[in-house]
Specification:
The structure is a single chain. The protein contains 36 helices and 27 strands. By secondary structure, it is α/β, with parallel strands linked by helices. The protein is globular and about 105 Å long.
């Protein structure tokens, strides 16, 4: 469940008659707990509560209902309950149906309210559904509640008006919803004269069955499109109750005023939405949440588009806001310097070419207004009208409803800033009528000419595209009020990795990368925005900062996308290395992203931001940021045929190439009916990635040439060997046909003499360590894993270290959401300092400790031991301690202490890699000169 669905469920619960016996279970269901779990709680099987009337859900909440007036004492009992502690409950909650009290046990934060009002505090309880609570929503849940109400209304209206759900009418439906949002906001902020004027008018003049609601709304909308001086002669004549609404227009109420038909339920949803306090709406939060309402495929993801202000500021602050604040600080009270800064700000253009509902633009506008207000205060001009034009904030959005909401969000943000910095009276005096608001272009940003939408100089705008069918020729082109100055591109474009792109997106990528001769199959869709920003930046005084998948700076994508960007003169001016970009989806740990800033003007130091292992944000000045987002040399890690460091060779395991005939399940092995001696000679346990990680039983025929004659005398084995021969003989590859001559064997027949280290080819990115391990010499490694035959045990300490995982995730990248291991790109390039015998002995002890800790939990598998569920590691304590000790020993070999975070690990690794490859190049023998060389 998402935040909007949870809010809706608990709002419905609060409206129902209170039933002490039912409440705990309905409450838990509202937060997404499955009915099977609730049945067990109801039966008492899993309910370990020791408080009368209590229900205890482990690692979640301890709830108790009680008699009237006993809520405070019941909450104390829940807090003191041994069962609460034992079950690791995060929250306690007590209610008698009249009042409700709850406490978050980790922080000690509490909520006390009347029972009917507890939905107003649902943000406080969102962690119960595995949703990381964001402060703005926790303190003020109006945005989620408004989205919930409008979502219900939208769905009900489409059910009643199926023709409005069709493509040709969907834009009308979306425009109607934007009009409602404006009306709700206007009536709660005195833009409309009168308390709740819009909602009360609808309630008073519409029938309870909703039959004339569309007519009443249409009349109100018509009134707001007629100037006051023209109303006396308007035909048909305006109703008196509609005539009291102001003239708004500005494009919002122009054109058709047709409204979809309402049902009784739809009218009820409309009135419920109107009774919220829309004055407290946050246009950036609300807009980003509601944009999914109008999309059938995304409606189940309401709230997932929300981007927190701190995350947006990670983009905007280093892009340009930090510089503005620094200039403000340097200006002090110098009126001339303050005036120059204010003039500079009036010419800044902020451009989001994937703007969605406009949250980046809204936050940029609010932050700039805050700086401007401080300038005005210092100059003694606090009541001055803002000189920052709203039309300086430009965007492109593919879908029409988010584009509509983006325009509206900026209008609301402007009014809220005017109220905050100039006062309600001045804000109201200048707010209506609205100016034309079509500065958000609805179209495909990858097919439009950004220079025409946001030109670097002048004031004129002419929208131009390279594709007639993707160019929005019907849109108004809004000129800028001021000459251009600086342009800052920002945003969070769609990611879409390999295998997840639509045909349209693939065409878009070909239009961007095709002319450059770049093969784009492995490049994430977001890479297109970086290339467009690069082209734009080479012709303008601009800089850009975009949120990206971190995979754009990892593995195969690096040598594809970054050389053409760097060769054009653009460089990375700042970066936030990998971090979780969370949203309001239940149990959602967030996608791992990076923020990358590009600019031509990068002569000074560059800022590299990272998160420490303790969770604090670190900032470091570096001379250069390379394509891997590492402060250091401009280097591309290239494949090697042998290890750069003094390490054992790592090879891909044995390829069966058998049509499944050399591989056996446990049952198939038993069906062979072999004697113990035959099984010992002819059968081996085989491990690929899945078999090793999950301890899955799989076997293979492993027949040495000396045992072939005896093996062929066993009919069941002979049949399998014959099947392999037939399969290989039909191969279109000459090498495959040649293998038919030894059809009793795999393509390779490699084993260790003493032991084998195994490394799966793919592994979940959620694990804190790569799942490498040790196998006996008798075990076979298939081509679904890598093997190091007879490698010393201290090298297992390297494979299972945090340092190695960070290197692999960076230079090898990922396959979907899994680490993709490569021996030639990962192991052979892995830089390891020169090790002493004592270092190797210490690392051997660490590897042994890890293996023994795993053994302590037999029969738990690698998957069990390293499981991460809902973002929480389930690793046993002794195994965690063994890994931490291993990291401690290895990292002290590298730098004499523990690394502070992965960024520091990578900086050291790349520094060492650069030096070692340079030394290797210098040591390589030079080729003799001459034409016979």
């Amino acid at each position: 469940m998402n935040a909007v669905e949870i809010e809706s469920a608990i709002s419905d619960l609060a409206l129902e008659p209170f039933d002490a016996g039912v409440f705990p279970f309905t409450f838990l269901a509202a937060f997404g707990n499955k009915e099977t779990a609730l049945k067990r709680l109801r039966a008492g099987n899993n309910n370990a509560s020791d408080v009368p009337g209590g229900v205890l859900l482990r690692s979640n909440i301890h709830i108790a209902t009680c008699k009237s007036g006993n809520v405070g004492d019941t909450l104390k009992a829940l807090r003191a309950s041994p069962a609460t502690t034992k079950a690791k409950a995060k929250f306690i909650l007590a209610t008698d149906g009249e009042t409700l009290e709850a406490e978050e046990l980790i922080t000690g934060e509490t909520v006390t309210c009347d029972y009917p009002d507890f939905p107003n505090h649902f943000g406080f309880l969102l962690p119960l559904a595995g949703i990381s609570t964001i402060k703005e929503i926790k303190d003020n849940p109006i945005d989620v509640r408004a989205t919930s109400r409008l979502n219900k209304l939208y769905v009900e209206l489409l059910n009643e008006n199926p023709d409005w759900a069709k493509a040709e009418r969907r834009a009308d439906m979306n425009h109607f919803m934007a009009r409602l949002v404006f009306c709700f906001f206007a009536e709660d902020t005195n833009i409309f004269n009168g308390d709740s004027l819009f909602t009360k008018t609808v309630e008073q003049f519409t029938e309870r069955d909703g039959s004339n609601t569309d007519q009443v709304l249409s009349e109100i909308f018509r009134a707001m499109n007629i100037k006051l001086a023209e109303r006396a002669t308007a035909q048909p004549r305006l109703s008196n109750w509609a005539n009291i609404f102001p003239y708004v227009n500005g494009g919002l109420f122009s054109g058709s005023t047709e409204v979809p038909r309402f049902t009784r339920i739809a009218r009820t949803y409309l009135l419920h939405a109107g009774r919220l306090n829309w004055k407290k709406i946050n246009p950036d939060i609300f807009g980003s949440m509601i944009q999914a309402v109008a999309d059938d495929e995304e409606r189940g993801a309401l709230g997932m588009h929300y981007t927190s202000v701190p995350n947006i500021l990670k983009v905007l602050n280093p892009l340009f806001l930090d510089d503005l604040r620094a200039q403000l600080e340097a200006a002090g009270d110098n009126r001339a310097k303050l005036l120059n800064l204010r003039k500079r700000m009036t010419h800044i253009r902020v451009f989001d070419p994937a703007c969605g509902s406009g949250n980046f633009l809204v936050i940029a506008y609010k932050q700039m207004r805050e700086i401007e207000a401080e300038i005005n205060r210092r100059r003694g001009e606090a009541n001055n009208k803002s000189e920052i034009p709203l039309t300086n904030f430009r965007g492109i959005e593919l879908r029409d409803f988010p584009a509509e909401i983006a325009r509206l969000a900026l209008i609301i943000a402007e009014f809220q800033c005017d109220v905050l910095y100039r006062g309600q009276q001045d804000a109201l005096a200048e707010f209506l009528p609205l100016d034309s608001q079509n500065w958000i272009v609805c179209g495909n940003a990858l097919r439009l000419d950004w220079l025409s939408i946001c030109p670097p100089t002048g004031t004129g705008v002419k929208v131009v595209g390279d594709d007639l069918f993707n160019t929005p020729l019907d849109q108004t082109e809004i000129d800028f009020e001021n000459e251009g100055g600086e342009t800052y591109i920002c945003g969070n474009p769609p990611y879409a990795g390999k295998g997840k792109k639509t045909p349209q997106q693939l065409d878009d990528m070909e239009s961007i990368f095709g002319p450059l001769g770049v093969k784009h199959g492995y490049i994430d869709y977001v890479g297109c925005w970086f290339m467009k920003a690069t082209h734009y930046g080479n012709k303008t005084n601009s800089a850009c900062a975009l949120v990206s998948t971190n995979s754009l700076c990892q593995g195969h994508q690096v040598p594809l996308i970054w050389p053409p960007i760097f060769s054009s003169g653009q460089n990375i001016s700042f970066a936030h290395t990998s971090f979780k970009w969370s949203n309001l989806a239940s149990k959602n740990a967030g996608v791992t992203v990076a923020i990358i800033g590009l600019s031509k003007n990068t002569s000074g130091v560059r800022k590299l931001f990272s998160v420490s292992d303790e969770g604090t944000v670190l900032s470091k000045d570096v001379p250069f940021i390379n394509a891997y987002l590492v402060g250091g040399a401009d280097v591309l890690v290239e494949k090697r045929s042998s290890p750069l460091s003094d390490l054992t060779a790592m090879d891909l395991g044995n390829m069966p190439y058998d049509g499944g005939n050399l591989l056996l399940t446990r049952q198939e092995l038993e069906d062979l009916e072999l004697s113990d001696l035959e099984q010992k000679r002819l059968i081996r346990r085989i491990y690929g990635s899945k078999e090793f990680i999950g301890n899955l039983e799989r076997y293979c025929l492993w027949i040495e040439d000396a045992h072939l004659t005896s093996a062929m005398q066993i009919p069941t084995i002979r049949a399998r060997i014959d099947a392999v021969r037939v399969m290989r003989s039909k191969s279109t590859d000459s090498g495959g046909r040649a293998l038919a001559a030894r059809s009793h064997q795999m393509r390779e027949m490699h084993t260790g003499l003493t032991q084998t280290l195994v490394m799966p080819r793919t592994s979940s990115e959620s694990r804190a360590y790569l799942p490498a391990g040790l196998l006996s010499a008798e075990s076979i490694v298939s081509s679904e894993a890598f093997a190091m035959f007879d490698a010393p045990l201290w090298q297992l300490a390297l494979l299972t270290s945090r340092v190695h995982l960070v290197w692999i995730s960076t230079v090898c990248g990922q396959l979907e959401t899994r680490y993709r291991y490569s021996n030639v790109l990962g192991w052979n390039t892995f830089p390891v300092p020169l090790l002493t015998e004592q270092n190797k002995a210490d690392l051997t002890a660490c590897a042994e400790a890890i293996l023994l800790a795993r053994e302590d939990h037999f029969p738990a598998t690698i998957a069990d031991l390293y499981e991460v569920k809902d973002g929480v590691s389930r690793m046993p304590d002794n195994l965690r301690h063994a890994h931490e000790r291993n990291d401690e020993v290895l990292e002290r070999i590298y730098i004499g202490r523990r690394f502070r975070n992965d960024t520091e690990r990578l900086e050291k690794l790349f520094d060492l890699y650069t030096k070692m490859t340079a030394d290797t190049a210098m040591a390589a023998p030079k080729k003799p000169r001459g034409k016979n060389a």
